[in-house]
């Protein structure tokens, strides 16, 4: 049984490394940044801009002291798109930049306009995968989300994770992809209010 805690701002730098490792073989992350050294160089900063605000809002869920992490952004809190854009511009190969812009544009079009709980990042350190940590993180977060009553949204960048999200009431609302990118699956969970 996993122990779930809430990540504090002081934990952020350490826990972002769990996410970097957890996404090291992610289809979309590595399509965007295929060179290993490039991926490792600034991915912690990118993830900090993408989901790091969860540490400031008490919505970064942590399993077993950092074996796995989920950064949920509460309604009204958004990723830092400016920082993300700068890093992706540096890390995306030149021949993929137009497609990356298209992918981000599609993500923006699918993202709900109403206030939702948003899950930018959930991952386990590969040394701890297969222990049910993702399920434990989702259970803890869904309890908080259901108490709030509003919908939740995510984009699954790995098709293997879709069954986990479906078990928690998320349904696919489309498909995000470009000519060469892997599929990104936007998923929405209705509110309970």
- Using the coordinates above, name the CATH class: Alpha Beta
Counting structural domains, the number is 1
Q: Which structural class matches the secondary elements? A: alpha+beta
- Provide the β-strand percentage band: 15-25%
Q: Give the H and E element order.
A: EHHHHEEHHEHEHEE
**How many helix segments?**
8
Percent helix range: 40-55%
Q: Characterize the biggest β-sheet.
A: 7 strands, mixed
User: From the structure provided, what is the oligomeric state, counting identical versus distinct chains?
Assistant: single chain
- What does the overall shape look like? globular
Total number of β-strand segments?
Answer: 7
Enumerate the strands of the largest sheet in spatial order, edge to edge or round the barrel: 1-2-3-4-5-7-6
Mean pLDDT: 96
Radius of gyration using CA atoms only: 16 Å
CATH topology: Aminopeptidase
Fourth-level CATH superfamily: Gcn5-related N-acetyltransferase (GNAT)
Low-confidence stretches: none
End-to-end distance:
30 Å
**Under the CATH scheme, which architecture would be assigned?**
3-Layer(aba) Sandwich
InterPro entries: Acyl_CoA_acyltransferase, GNAT_dom, Trichothecene_AcTrans
GO molecular function: acyltransferase activity, transferring groups other than amino-acyl groups
Organism: Sphingopyxis macrogoltabida
Domain N-acetyltransferase: 26-192
């Amino acid at each position: 049984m996993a122990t779930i805690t809430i990540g504090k701002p002081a934990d952020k730098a350490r826990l972002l490394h769990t996410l970097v490792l957890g996404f090291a073989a992610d289809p979309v992350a590595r399509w965007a940044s295929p060179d290993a050294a490039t991926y490792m160089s600034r991915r912690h900063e990118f993830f900090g801009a993408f989901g790091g605000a969860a540490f400031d809002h008490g919505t970064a869920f942590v399993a077993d002291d950092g074996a796995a992490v989920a950064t949920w952004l509460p309604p009204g809190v958004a990723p830092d798109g400016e920082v993300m854009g700068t890093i992706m511009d540096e890390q995306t190969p030149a021949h993929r930049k137009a497609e990356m812009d298209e992918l981000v544009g599609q993500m923006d079009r699918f993202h709900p306009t109403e206030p939702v709980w948003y899950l930018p990042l959930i991952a386990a350190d590969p040394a701890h995968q297969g222990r049910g940590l993702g399920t434990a993180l989702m259970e803890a977060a869904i309890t908080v989300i259901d108490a709030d009553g509003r919908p939740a949204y995510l984009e699954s960048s790995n098709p293997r994770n879709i069954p986990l999200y479906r078990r928690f009431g998320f349904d696919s609302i489309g498909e995000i992809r470009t000519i060469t990118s892997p599929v990104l699956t936007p998923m929405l969970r209705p509110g309970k209010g």
